[in-house]
Design a protein that fits this description.
heterodimer, A: alpha+beta, Aldehyde Ferredoxin Oxidoreductase,  A, domain 1, Aldehyde Ferredoxin Oxidoreductase Protein, subunit A, domain 2, Aldehyde Ferredoxin Oxidoreductase Protein, subunit A, domain 3, 3 domains, B: mainly beta, five-stranded mixed β-sheet, 10% helix
Amino acid sequence: MAKSIAGTVLHVDLSESKLWVEHPDESLYRKYGGGSAMALHYILKEMAPGTDPLSPGNILTVFSAVPTGLAISGQSRVAVNARSPLTNAVGDSQAGGFFPASLKFAGFDGIVIRGKAKKPVYLLLNNGKAEIKDAGHLWGKFTAESEEILKKELEDSRIEIMQIGPAGEKLVRFAAIMNMRNRANGRTGMGAVMGSKMLKAIVVQGNQRVEAFDKQEIVRLNRDGIKRLDEVLDVKGLNINGTGDVVPFQNSIGSLPTRNYREGQFEGFEEISGETVTKTILVDRDTCFGCVVRCKRKVETEFEGNKVLPAYGGAEYETLATFGSYCGNNDLASIQYANQLCNAYGMDAISCGATIAFAMDCFQNGLISQEETGGIDLGFGNGNAVVEMVEKIGRREGFGDLLAEGSVKAAEKIGKGAASFLATCKRQEIPAHAPQAKRSLGLVYAVNPFGADHQSSEHDPMYEEGGAELYFERLAMIGLNNPQVPGTMEDEKVRFAYLTEVFYSALDTYCLCQFVWGPAWTLYGPAEMASMLKAATGWDVDIQELMIVGERRLNMLRAFNAREGFTRGDDRLPEKFFQPLAGTGPTSGMALDKDHFEHEKDVYYKLAGWDNESGNPTRSKLVELGLEWLAV
Amino acid sequence: MVGSLIRVKVTLHSYLKEFLPEELDGEKEFELQDGETIAGLVQLMGLPESAAAAVNESIERDRRKVLQDGDHVRFLRPGAGG
């Protein structure tokens, strides 16, 4: 077995209170890498099509990957998968922190969870052993409260905990799974699946070492990374101001969603920027295991007498935008408090903020009244209302109970044409990058198997003329040699979308951070990623193998959807993006074109080797990728 | 012959702030020769070529763009988000 692999997968049946371990063959790790590809190997083989996402039949997986736990930046990530209760498609979410590395230190590469416990439980993993423990005393607790209790009763302050908050218990469809109280496996409602299984937490403790085949090469790469912190300027920006560093750039290109994507620029962008956070409320920079980038924030402030605590971190770019400009809200304290509530209740801040923005749009247009909202004035720009709605959603209380279903289900209930205000793909709320400004990202929002996502491909500016030489040198390594005219969407941009999506898919398979390892602007590029994996395992990994592994995962995700009846028709953008954006800036008056968008899909499916009519993987593509067991 | 002068406000964002003295917090007004371009300003300030520029809150990719009196120029890190 390659040195960096624990070699053990924990299997859990909560209905039967049974635990067992499996020691997969090394070839399985090489084929699937880890992460969601490894997860789908189990889910697709075992879970029946048509399984209700909130039923005991859904399978929830937690996987690290081959390099997780090594002493190098950007390797401590964990993938959580299941069928999504938000989208009904495949669910996928990624998070960092110390939990992922600690899962390996506890002796496990991943966990496959079936069934439903009769009462609240948690899993305790310790040095290759596991047990199911009572969690009755934790049920209903906020994430920081549960963490404190567990550390006290287990008499170990170094344990790492992956857990749901009250939102997951109440099956909020975009509930997250939290670790460190501020790292979220946020997207696609994996917290609700965990809640449906009555599984409150997974606790890991242990001191097993993760070794590398070529330790010296890992040390060399790590030292290079430290030296580069000052040289790779985009990463330096991340360190200084966190992901919120991009707010002014997003605004300048008309890509900052404002008032539920009515506009692409926000007049209050400076108040909500990462720079303002740094200047006014930042108390510390935080990191994930082994990472020198330190892009995470810890802030301290107050909102309406409520303390915003460093323990709950600080809002990321997406959160600054979704609770900020998306809601027309320039009150930074309310955004940070909304972020804290999301982390305490355990909710995806993107879906939560975007769903509130959708409700605000309905309110502004008279589709819902103040009486229906429980007396809350849901007009755009009301930071107090944003905070109140987050709490109501987390508790499933009043109007919050409706919004806890996600914006698509809420639109169905509201009726009166509310669907025209939706900003979703495959029922998942769209992150904070306007497709009018980032055209290839718009395509990826639509075709991505688990719904709209901004971390599933590289963003357009990296492949546009005027970009840094570093971007182009690295993109050339994956076959992209023709930077495009800014703002355009020719067939070459579709190729960029597809090839970088495959590369990002590899990142999510090997559970590597997309701010450290990537195809353009990050600390390390594709060649170094291959070197690192080779040093970790001793396998003769090259860039081509990375791309095949990424393509394999993408096809597995897509195959999951195909058997649930998803087709090309589900790869669509909301109507509002085909209407001109209002407001100011370079995207004002811009609308996407439906015929062109369909052409982009034709080109994309051809590149992927998928059937153009159904948009699904062909038998020959699955066989080519060694997935003949999925070909029907 | 000396041409007329224009005044432009410059705001530097992200790591680019380091290209001005710390006490200025990334902001400075410049008097430039009429006809000065973004490229000229980048050179004058010693900024990296990869810095994105926005004039009056809109991205401006043409480095030959001639600046006007009263313009507000921002230099930014082109980022991906997260």
